[in-house]
Design goal:
The complex is a heterodimer of chains A (351) and B (556).
Chain A: E1 4-13, E2 16-26, E3 31-35, H1 42-50, E4 57-62, E5 65-69, E6 74-75, E7 84-86, H2 98-108, H3 113-126, H4 142-154, E8 160-164, H5 172-189, E9 192-197, H6 200-206, E10 209-214, E11 217-222, H7 224-229, H8 234-239, E12 243-254, E13 257-262, E14 265-271, E15 280-286, E16 291-292, E17 300-310, E18 315-321, E19 324-330, E20 338-342, E21 348-350
Parallel strand pairs in A: 3-9, 3-10, 7-8, 8-9, 14-21
Antiparallel strand pairs in A: 1-2, 1-4, 4-5, 5-6, 10-11, 12-13, 12-15, 13-14, 15-21, 16-20, 17-18, 17-20, 18-19
Helix pairs in contact in A: 2-3, 2-4
Chain B: H1 5-29, H2 45-51, H3 54-87, H4 93-105, H5 108-119, H6 124-133, H7 143-153, H8 155-168, H9 171-179, H10 184-213, H11 216-222, H12 230-236, H13 246-278, H14 295-321, H15 333-336, H16 340-347, H17 349-380, H18 386-394, H19 396-399, H20 403-416, H21 427-437, H22 439-451, H23 455-464, H24 468-479, H25 481-497, H26 513-522, H27 526-549
Classes of the chains: A alpha+beta (351), B mainly alpha (556).
């Protein structure tokens, strides 16, 4: 049985329906990422699970115990759900030391003093904060604050840990380290974790399951590889990865592949859903898979180069044909004004 | 499910606290006699009685003139003062700022005394003028003088609103206009002024509203000629007919609130849109002062004249008067110099008690009121419930109630409710009235400081396992500590100054300085009144100094 089960959550702000039936489940030791553009309801969903927002329909259960059931009018307040929550702002109480911040949950549970000291010391040690007990949050760096926030949410042993964009306030270098650290920690501590993020790289890297939200409903749910390699909706295909989007008409379809004619530019790709010849379609092409080809290769289009930029590691070129322009990365400078551009069919999805 | 029961109960109690007085006034206004009298019958004649009394129309007319005069004089002057203080390089801004707040917190009774003893018929200035130039050209008891005095003393109210708005206008807006070729004055009129218009309008409504509440200044400066305003007209009914005519007083109260309530509602609406307007700047940018050139000395001189008129002139008069036994045209100061007036403060038990009571009420009572406001504030904190929105609207009622009215109604309630009756002339009744009068202001201060506690800091405590009481105790209250302390200090200042609220509640044992000043004035006891006024001003000045020292914003 999964540690956390969320079923069919509906939530309204006034007349606006923000969540329209979101469901997911997380097993012990696993991380689920709620991913989506801003306004997709991912933070709201996380806050609903925590009891900080109130849904009007749906069910949430933690470790097999129901904490919310819209049909039975059951809605345990946040303090009775026993979850860990890491806020985007970290929300460390500025008037308490690191030790007191972390110890708060234990003290609320009336744990004996000696046990509080042992447990807090242990958690802070695990998070590499052993030397900072008496500091105040304002005296810590961003990375340290983030770890205090995590320590605070772990100290009272919640089965489920909810993290709202925990890495977004860290600078880029620290973020990569923290990501790896977080993944290792959650697996080792055997919690079920839900992490909200708008950064697909972060979601792909950290999660065992990605729940992709769009406008309050789940667009696709699955492993990172699933979402990247087997998108089932146009939204998923377009949201994950760095893509070029082309609209056109289906001129050939069959064998799992379809060809689209977009104003003189022809692309072939996997069918995300069955399409028939003559209907309109959209092609999503992974930009990083575009490349220069040799003449005669399949899945190529002859285009001419209009701009070139040197990015340090790579060169970026803009190639045009008709109204279309594609950005293509190469490892070295390109001399020719015109060349065939490869749009490999394995990295194109047609919807 | 989270229980909202306690929130609703507190809102309910607060609503009762607000609505009971208003209901009682309404009921009383339709009775032939005092509501506790056996002879009281329902009637509407009280209204026709008041409406057919020429005295009422005179009072109404005077009130309207005063109120209009205040708007016409105080609003431009206050706006100009704000512009000079916030936007220009006028010298001495640093020490003028605290001086501006002094008239705001000084008791109007003290100011009124000050004008009488300084420029009254045999005042210090008048006698000097008489000896030097001949008969003075002014009459302190005249209507134009009264308008001038109330208008000048309300300049700070306008200043606060406009200065706050001016500080949010980023100076790059002005600089852009300057670069585009605008002269400083043009820029001030065409760029800065339109941006702060909403705040100026709000302050105009506020000042008009305060004009209807005026009591102390018109009571002292206008009463000699029998010139009444609505509040003093109301006060007259206490003794006019031999015994208090409660039913007529209630009618007058209804008429006052019929004017003040719409003004308060209007102000609230305008304040909301003004706040939307003023957030354009977002972050406070460093503002660059507009250079005034030689005009800055003219500006400084103007501000100094104003400060002299509203602070130094009345205060020096009161201070001087408190050190002499008598004063008149032929008196030499060294013959009459004395400390007796101060000895009397300690010797007369009544006066001594009023000082002790004031300090007690301001310090302990202020804290107790703050606790009440904090409890109400916690009940409506981050609540989306309908009941709290109703509360938000209900607090407009006490806001529209002049202090003297609130005191009267609390007096009635203590008379009316059997178990409260023994307390009717006690400090408790006084405290209840003060708490009611300052409820809207106190609640706003408290809610503001609660609102500044980050939402996630509270939520973090909830998810960690704290219930509502623990979150309040462990997170909200500790983090709002500074704001609450500031609110306490402001309550101290306001309670120490308050005089009109206690007028009807004063009895044996619960005298406070403010009401004592009124009754000393009634009895013509100027000697002691002056020394008591000096003590009252010193207490308030001490509070202001402490507030500035602690960095408390007085323009809240």
């Amino acid at each position: 049985m999964p540690e956390l089960v969320v079923e069919n959550i509906h939530l309204k702000y006034g007349a606006v329906e923000v969540l329209k039936g979101a469901s997911f489940a997380v097993e012990k030791g696993q991380i689920a990422a709620l991913l989506g553009p801003s306004g997709s309801g991912k933070t709201t969903l996380l806050r609903t699970v925590a009891g900080l927002e109130r849904a009007y329909k749906g069910r949430v259960s933690v470790s097999g115990k129901e904490v919310f059931d819209g049909s039975r009018n059951l809605d345990l307040p946040a303090e009775k759900r026993g979850l860990g929550f890491v806020f985007q702002s970290y929300a460390l109480w500025p008037n308490r030391t690191v030790f007191d911040n972390v110890a708060y949950g234990l003290r609320l549970r009336k744990v004996a003093d000696a046990e509080v000291r042992r447990k807090v010391g242990q958690v802070l040690e695990v998070l590499g904060l052993g030397h900072l007990h008496e500091r105040y949050p304002s005296q810590l760096s961003g990375g340290q604050q983030q770890r205090v926030a995590i320590a605070r949410s772990l100290a009272y042993d919640p089965a489920v840990l909810l993290l709202d964009e925990p890495l977004s306030n860290l600078d880029a270098k620290l973020r990569d380290e923290a990501r790896a650290f977080l993944k290792e920690l959650i697996t080792r501590e055997e919690r079920a974790a839900v992490i909200v993020t708008h950064d697909q790289i972060e979601a792909l890297a950290i999660a065992d399951t990605i729940v992709l939200l769009n406008g309050g409903v789940i667009a696709q749910e699955g492993s990172p590889e699933d979402l990247y390699n087997r998108p089932t909706t146009l939204f998923t295909a377009d949201f994950i990865g760095n893509n070029v989007r082309l609209a056109g008409k289906v001129i050939a379809a069959g064998d799992g592949f379809a060809t689209l004619d977009c104003d003189g530019l022809q692309v072939t790709g996997r069918m995300g859903q069955p399409v028939t010849v003559g209907q309109g379609g959209t092609a999503i092409c992974r930009m990083d898979k575009l490349g220069l080809a040799v003449p005669g290769e399949r899945d190529t289009v002859e285009m001419h180069r209009t701009t070139t930029m040197f990015l340090g590691e790579k060169w970026e070129h803009v190639y045009r044909i008709g109204n279309h322009s594609l950005r293509v990365l190469t490892d070295s400078a390109v001399g020719d004004a015109t060349s065939p551009i490869r749009i490999p069919r394995e990295s194109v999805w047609i919807f | 499910m989270r229980s909202d029961l306690w929130r609703n109960n507190i809102v309910l109690l607060t609503a009762l606290f607000i609505l009971a007085p208003v209901g009682l006034i309404l009921w009383q206004s339709f009775l032939t006699d005092a509501f506790f009298s056996a002879r009281a019958n329902p009637t509407a004649d009280t209204y026709s009685f008041v409406l057919s009394d020429p005295g009422f129309w005179d009072a109404l007319q005077n009130t309207v003139i005063l109120s209009a005069g205040m708007v016409v004089i105080a609003v431009p002057l206050g706006s100009l003062l704000a512009f000079l203080m916030v936007r220009t390089d006028m010298p001495g801004r640093r020490w003028i700022e605290p001086a501006i707040f002094l008239p705001l917190f000084m008791s109007p009774m003290v100011l009124a005394f000050g004008y009488i003893v300084s420029i009254g018929p045999s005042g210090f200035w008048s006698t000097w003028w008489q000896q030097t130039f001949g008969a003075p050209f002014w009459n302190v008891y005249s209507m134009p003088m009264l308008v001038l005095v109330v208008a000048l003393t309300h300049v700070p109210h306008v200043y606060i609103y406009v200065a706050t708005a001016l500080r949010t206008v980023p100076s790059d807006l002005e600089e852009a206009a300057r670069v585009a070729g605008g002269a400083p004055l043009t820029v001030a009129m065409k760029v800065t002024l339109p941006l702060v218009w909403p705040s100026i309008a709000v302050s105009a409504v506020l000042v008009a509203f305060l004009g209807f509440e005026l009591f102390g200044l018109p009571y002292v400066l206008g009463d000699q000629d029998g010139r009444l305003v609505l509040a003093t007209y109301l006060y007259k009914f206490n003794t006019l007919l031999g015994r208090p005519a409660y039913q007529l007083m209630a009618v007058v109260v209804i008429f006052i609130m019929l004017v003040t309530l719409p003004l308060v509602m209007l102000q609230r609406r305008m304040l909301r849109s003004a706040q939307r307007y003023s957030t354009i700047g977002g972050k406070a940018t460093r503002s660059h002062a507009v250079p005034l050139g030689p005009w800055k000395w003219v500006a400084l001189a103007g501000v100094m004249i104003w400060l002299y008129a509203v602070v130094l002139l009345p205060l020096s008069g009161v201070a001087l008067r408190s050190f002499v036994t008598t004063w008149g045209p032929l008196v030499a100061i060294r013959d009459v110099l004395t400390f007796d007036n101060y000895h009397k403060l300690a010797d007369l038990p009544l006066i001594r008690r009023s000082i002790v009571n004031t300090l007690l009420l301001a310090f302990v009572g202020g804290f107790a009121s703050l606790c009440v406001y904090a409890l109400i504030g916690l009940a409506s904190h981050r609540s989306q419930a309908k009941s709290t929105r109703v509360l938000d609207f209900l607090v407009l009622l006490p806001r529209a109630m002049p202090g003297i009215v609130a005191g009267l109604v609390v007096f009635w309630i203590f008379l009316f409710v059997p178990f409260l009756k023994p307390w009717v002339a006690s400090l408790v009744a006084m405290w209840v009235a003060y708490t009611l009068v300052w409820l809207p202001f106190g609640l706003r201060l408290v809610s503001n400081s609660f609102g500044q506690v980050g939402r996630e800091l509270e939520e973090a405590a909830y998810v960690t396992g704290a219930g509502q009481a623990r979150v309040a105790r462990d997170v909200i209250l500790p983090l709002a500590k500074h704001g609450l302390l500031a609110a306490w200090l402001l309550a101290f200042l306001l309670y120490a100054r308050e005089y009109s609220t206690g007028i009807f509640l004063m009895g044996q044992g619960n005298e406070v300085m403010g009401t004592m000043l009124v009754s000393l004035w009634n009895g013509g006891n100027i000697d002691v009144a002056s020394s008591l006024a000096v003590v009252n001003t010193l207490v308030i000045a001490g509070g202001i100094a402490l507030a500035l020292r602690l960095g408390v914003r007085l323009d809240a």
